Amino acid sequence: MTTIKKFEPVKSALLIMDYQRLILENYLSEKTAADVLAKTAALADAAREAEIKVIYIAVGFREGHPEISSKNALFSGVKKNGLLVTGAPESEIHPDVSPQAGEPVIIKHRIGAFSFTGLDMILKANGIQTLIMAGLTTSGVVLSSVRQAFDLDFNLIIAADCCGDADDYIHSVLINSILPQHAEVQVAAELIKRMSASKN
């Protein structure tokens, strides 16, 4: 994927997706979790400095999980175990990357950030054309949301080291071979430099 030539902060948003305690503690190694948290926190601070909108995505359900069908093989286990109820401790966004005042948190009930949510409406209402994506997991919310956003004609940048997966091999294949077909892939340090340069 070619580099996005014109990077305009006012038309860009950083999506921090599924950085929730349950996912960080159960799907990533302790080392990977610490690493992605530190890099995503730095990226979020740089985005705010550059006046790039920061938007959070989190998976969550009402008590009793009425949003989950028994036909859904992935989420039926979540329902059976009573997990990811909105407001429960394990559903909280990790405090190292928690939203600041005025930053929206969009609750989703499926894998993709755009599935049955108001994300597209919020982005279009704010004139957003470029999305910078950080998410857990790479094979889950990142892959699904990149494909959805690509179909919606957004410019896409993936912060490679702000994504992680339970399977390092799958993460590597997606970041190096699959996702570059739809998005520019960069590491957080390079994106932070780019954000800083955009202020000048």
TrEMBL record:
Tree of life domain: Bacteria
InterPro entries: Isochorismatase-like_dom, Isochorismatase-like_hydrls, Isochorismatase-like_sf
Domain Isochorismatase-like: start-end pairs: 12-186
Pfam families: Isochorismatase (PF00857)
Keyword set, alphabetical order: Hydrolase
Coiled-coil region list: none
A single MF term (Gene Ontology): hydrolase activity
PANTHER family per record: ISOCHORISMATASE HYDROLASE (PTHR43540:SF1), PEROXYUREIDOACRYLATE/UREIDOACRYLATE AMIDOHYDROLASE-RELATED (PTHR43540)
Protein name: Cysteine hydrolase
Species, as recorded: Candidatus Pantoea multigeneris
